[in-house]
Structure formats: structure tokens, C-alpha cells
Amino acid sequence: MAFADQPSYIIKMRAKPGMADRLFHLATVGMEKSGSSDRFIMLREDDDPDVLWNIEVFRSVEAKDGYENSPMADELRDEIIDLLAEPPVRIAAHPYSAIPSLPGDAE
Hints:
By secondary structure, this protein is an alpha+beta fold. The protein has one domain: Alpha-Beta Plaits (2-Layer Sandwich). It is built from 3 helices and 4 strands. The chain has helices at residues 20-34, 61-68, 71-83, and strands at 8-14, 37-44, 51-58, 89-93. A 4-stranded antiparallel β-sheet has the order 2-3-1-4. β2 and β3 (51-58) form a beta hairpin.
């Protein structure tokens, strides 16, 4: 599988009322600053704008582990958790395909 070494997450978070914009900002800034992701997509539900969906593809297992064990991740995690109305849902996954293809994908 071309993506076997790229761990990924699908994460759902629901912000407390009035905190969604802050949640989206922190989640986006965290992904941009970490540099550990090959790509990520932040989605806001049309029918419930307090819900954030994050699809994140890490560059490698090492990049994921490095980010998850970093001081920045700890700080962001604590601040984000304070903004949530309920526990987040996080599903571990690996990409199956991507268009356009990612660098290094099997041709």
C-alpha cells in the first residue's frame, strides 16, 4: 500500500457554544506550526457550525510521534480540550488513495 507509512486521523470535535471560532483557529494554527502533516483538511459542518472535522495525514510515523510528544501538542491539547462541549472522537486510519497523488505515491 502506497500510504502504509503515513498514519492519519479523522477527528470530530464539538465546541462549547460561542467557542467554535477559537477551536477552529487553534486547530488550524497547530497543524500549520507542527509541520508534521503532509496535508490536513478542517471541515465545519453546515448544519452544526460548532462541529469541527479534521482529516490529518502525517508525513511519517516518526513525524506523528514527534508531534504527539511535543510541548506544543501538550499546550494545544489542553487549550482545545477546554473549548470542547464533549470528548473528541479520534479515528486512526491510513489513506487509501488521494487525488492529486501525494509525492512518493506508487505510480
